[in-house]
Amino acid sequence: MQETPSTEPLVVGFDLDMTLIDTVPGFARVLVALGGELGVDFPVEQMTSKLGPPLDLLLADHLAEERIPSASDRFRELYPDHAIESVPALPGAHDALAAVRRHRGRVVVVTGKFPANARRHVDHLGLDVDHLEGWVWGVGKADALRREGASIYVGDHVHDVEGALAAGVTSVSVLTGGCTREELLAAGTHVVLDDLADFPAWLDAHLLERRVGALLADLEQRGSVLVAYSGGADSAFLLAAAVRALGPERVAAATGYSDSLPQVERDPARTFAESLGVDVLTPQTHEMEREGYRANAGDRCFFCKAELLDVLTPIAAERGIAHVATGTNADDAVAGFRPGIRAAAERGAITPLRDAGLTKDQIRAASQAWGLPTWDKPAAACLSSRVAYGIEVTPHRLARVERAEAAVRAALAGTGLLNLRVRDLGGRASIEIDAALLPLAPALEAAVLDAARAIGFPDAAVDARGFRSGSLNDALR
């Protein structure tokens, strides 16, 4: 089975008949209509028991050889009027395609069906498909799968298995087309599912296993790694993965201490890293001395990450550590405006989580499976991310934000609060909390606002839209 590199986009191929759609009722109607015209009593139930092979093969046992080409053509002509409206999507079909989309994947349909009729089914049922290729059968499907870059092919027939294996991709079989589990396994399929309803969970687990494996393999060949470690879910998982791949003696964690790192984050981060047996370094960083950082334009994060890497890179060299790694994940890579990623890349930092294709949700799932306490830790961006762009970042502003968040969290104790941001908008504070807690009761909202004002904000308001990671970036758009 071929495993494509994790950095390549996910492409999943699907068969159509009896995999995505229940062709039996429509196929049967066309056979009856065709038989009426030809004066042939086709054994409809028998012929529809294992749909998938080319039409010519299905007709071969019931018509003289010379009649098959014209009968096949007539079948295809009759098909649109008899088989489109009556054919439903199989249970789980739409959810299976949606599961591929959730992983930012492409969907290709590779089928033995006449392409125009296959397209009619796809359009009628609203199947979310990027590419459709028809009139290919058995091992002939391999060319289409390879050309489209598929790494998985889902089908219901032993000949679908042949196509997947010939293409060197993972073969997933469903039991909706008449072939038995034993027949499919004997043909060499890698996975057998009852139906497509089981596919989303399988895909989640498959990609997670594959991507974590790619991460560990990548780290192992790196030799040694200094992890730029904030204590958040991403960098904590990267640190734990590096220890698994390399051993603690070839891994170190470095947390840049500055005014932008909340005091409340420091001890838990150190405790976790030390529990892994790695050296924990806490060098001072001086991003506040960089004019571009203090100016707090849209590229502030560039100067912050540049400072961090300019500090950590010499430390890694002094210790004989081959690479500095950041916790950038696959979601970050497609999130749009991320100047910090550019600064790190310019300084040679590696991004193993992103390279393995691991998303935030996958990192949390893997962290939970490994028993890491950070698996459900809320996002905790640096304090400077709370200051609206265009307002100068100063130690005083950052300290005020940190104190205000502690005071608001205390005011909301017992409410189940997870995410909280106090945004410094200059003359006032915008308080973002979990949307599920909104609207606050009047007395509770008053306590929250009083807490922020007591810290030194002239005015404050609770944002009715709730917590939104990176909400200040809206101003840049």
UniProtKB/TrEMBL annotation:
<dbReference type="InterPro" id="IPR052188">
    <property type="entry name" value="Ni-pincer_cofactor_biosynth"/>
</dbReference>
<dbReference type="InterPro" id="IPR014729">
    <property type="entry name" value="Rossmann-like_a/b/a_fold"/>
</dbReference>
<dbReference type="InterPro" id="IPR005232">
    <property type="entry name" value="LarE"/>
</dbReference>
<dbReference type="Pfam" id="PF12710">
    <property type="entry name" value="HAD"/>
</dbReference>
<dbReference type="InterPro" id="IPR023214">
    <property type="entry name" value="HAD_sf"/>
</dbReference>
<dbReference type="GO" id="GO:0016783">
    <property type="term" value="F:sulfurtransferase activity"/>
</dbReference>
<dbReference type="InterPro" id="IPR023198">
    <property type="entry name" value="PGP-like_dom2"/>
</dbReference>
<dbReference type="InterPro" id="IPR036412">
    <property type="entry name" value="HAD-like_sf"/>
</dbReference>
<protein>
    <recommendedName>
        <fullName>Hydrolase</fullName>
    </recommendedName>
</protein>
